[in-house]
Amino acid sequence: MRGIAKEKGVLKLWHGTSAGIMKTVPKYMTAIACRDAMDAWLPRPLDRPATPREELTRSAVKSVAAGVCGAALTNPLDVLRNEMFKTDLGVKDAFQKLLREEGAAKFATRGMGKNLMAVAIPIAITIFVTDALVSAKKARREAE
What we know:
This protein is mostly helical. The chain has one domain. The protein is about 80% helix and about 0% strand. The radius of gyration is 20 Å and the shape is elongated.
């Protein structure tokens, strides 16, 4: 950090933050929308309340789908941010460079596999744990 601050200036410590911020809100909005859609789409038992195991399984499926959707949608912004780090360019210049050198489709999907692992897993875990806690709290309230 000292080297960056000394060689390029203190503001360079925040280089890439703009692309990071641009991806955070859409990533989680997409993940939550996907989770909600999966919740409506996944079947529930018609003749009885779902068992805790069934609820956890539904939550796991919803969470994985949400993580994948959020990561896939924001992959281009991760590529953009990485390009900014690699080239030391700003958002606009890095974006134009990517479009010029790779084209929209290639740049939008570059590194998708690695990004899905790095981004989808934490999102899925966060949503799964939250779902499990909310379900447990709801079950306790209903039991009282």
